[in-house]
Predict the structure.
Amino acid sequence: MNSNTIGYLVTTLATALGLLVIDTVVPGVDIANFPAALIAAVVVGGINSTIRPILSILSLPINFLSLGLFSLVVNGVCLWLAALLVPGFAINGIIAFILGPVILSFASTFLNNYFDEKNVVGSVLNSEMTADKKIAQSPLSTIPSDMTVERKIEQSPAGSSNSEIS
């Protein structure tokens, strides 16, 4: 896996954990379980990258007149759309509609910053590289390294053929 994929997975995990936070903090937000939160995090990410920019452009005059406060409504609509698409995730009431996305934003930002500070992506990549290295050095490895082949040639008796080298 590359760092972009791991970064996406870490961001999705942070969003899922943020959804669980708003489930406990905001009345009217209900998430059935952690798998529903993970699915909701993926759907929220998809909606925020596709539908939200369109809604933001269409609501630009209203957002301008409200000094940016209408963006809370746009965020609420996006979260509500995600709740419509994901079973086990529901948004009920105006408080959940407005306050849910605000707290989700704070929680996700906090968790993403925490994961960045702890260098989670780098740690995962390093452990993955270490695991690959251990597999390559394993005696059960099917592809011998050049060094292993050279050692076998050097250890073979002078008169024997080298056809036994695998």
